[in-house]
Amino acid sequence: MYETVIGLEVHLHLKTKTKAFCGCSTEFGQEPNSQVCPVCLGFPGSLPVLNKVALDYAIKVALSLNCKVQEYTKFDRKNYFYPDLPKNYQISQYDLPISRNGFLNIDLDDKSKRIGITRVHLEEDAGKLIHQKESSLVDFNRAGIPLLEIVSEPDINSPQEAYEYLTILKSIIEYLDVSDCDMEKGSLRCDANISIRKKGAQELGVKTELKNMNSFKAVKEALSFEVERQTELLNKSKPIIQETRLWDAKELTTVSMRTKEEAQDYRYFPEPDLPPFIISKEKIEEIRKTIPELPKEKKQRFMQWVSASSANTLVSCKIDAELAERLLQSYSNKKLVADWLINVASSTANSLNCSIAQLGVKEEYYIEIFGYLDKELISNLTAKAVWDEVVKTKKSPSEIIKEKNLIQISDESSLEKNIEEVIEENPKSVEAFKSGKENAVMFLVGQVMKKTKGKANPKMVQEILKRRLTDA
Hints:
Elements: E1 2-13, H1 52-64, E2 68-69, E3 72-73, E4 76-79, E5 89-92, E6 99-108, E7 111-124, E8 128-131, E9 136-139, E10 146-152, H2 159-176, E11 188-198, E12 208-211, H3 216-235, E13 243-248, E14 253-259, E15 269-270, E16 277-278, H4 281-288, H5 295-302, H6 308-314, H7 318-330, H8 334-351, H9 363-374, H10 380-393, H11 397-404, H12 412-425, H13 427-434, H14 440-451, H15 458-471
Parallel strand pairs: 12-13
Antiparallel strand pairs: 1-10, 1-11, 2-6, 3-16, 4-5, 4-15, 6-7, 7-10, 8-9, 11-12, 13-14
Helix pairs in contact: 2-3, 5-6, 6-8, 7-8, 9-10, 12-14, 12-15, 13-14, 14-15
């Protein structure tokens, strides 16, 4: 009955050494108000000077998102009062941004969908408010940090599509190495505009802007809540108010913050202290040549070794993709490498809130584990236990396996006694197998594994049991 329409605004701190319009450091975590000067504090008479690296990074991102880079661009003053905005205006871009009309393709349910990029433009960030019980403090260290705003078209039609778009966008930015994309530090932030309309309708519904979402999961949850809230209002013939709402992660709900401002409320006008900028075609092509292999291209290369699904997962994080590529090149069993990284290593990394590469496991240790598994010297279960010990102690797999005597028993004569005991002790399962219930053998395998404390080769045990019970 209804269609969801979502547009996303992503704000990204660029990884420059100095701020957008002055020489103050952008280093994170320093003493409050220790990285400020008359320019970023908005003192009368101070003049901004554009950071060249920030401009180059902005162009690099725009090109990577298939945008048309404008040869003529200018900055504007966006006027509004916030306690953490010292000048009472923000240097931003309005009618002549650095770039327009790009796109990003997302994959969902084995289908590709193109999401339009309205614009990528450069601006400066505001400071940071720290709220206390009876007062608020302000830290201006963040004021003036170069901020890239990436605005999508309202082409996103579900919270899941929004999640996929953000995941791919973040991956591209990480590959470009222009931002650390750390949402906890506030260097990547996302606002979402969402409305719903009757299916087939051309006119957009009344939109709500969502803020205060500190993870992609939170974006997805907040959008899902808004879909339900707005649908319920329309079903009851109640009006949807155009407003800004905050996401409450504890209560899993959105709450009204303020009615939404329009562009005219900000009173944009050209920034008089910065001249317009001409970006030559030569400059654009020079920056284009610095763009590295991006996730889409790396995925295509990985597909020579692994499935499209595995390749897609492996390339999502730049440093993990680099590790995966070295391992895939070094080891012949590509499927084992991909499965281990995707199912085992990533699970460990997620539990420790880091990337696979940041686990600090030496590449030769991966190769050792793969070798033990391929030669069936240890079981999958044992390999995972060894892996956990490697991550914890940084010892080599060989050392751990030797210390704990974990090599699988793969000799039939060594397994014979335990197998005979299990057959004698479990007549019901034996009869069930003989009567055609093949799965009954797995229970018997489990009993042999218990008797050998997990050291028996389960594949060999299963083969021996089937042969014994079929011949009996």
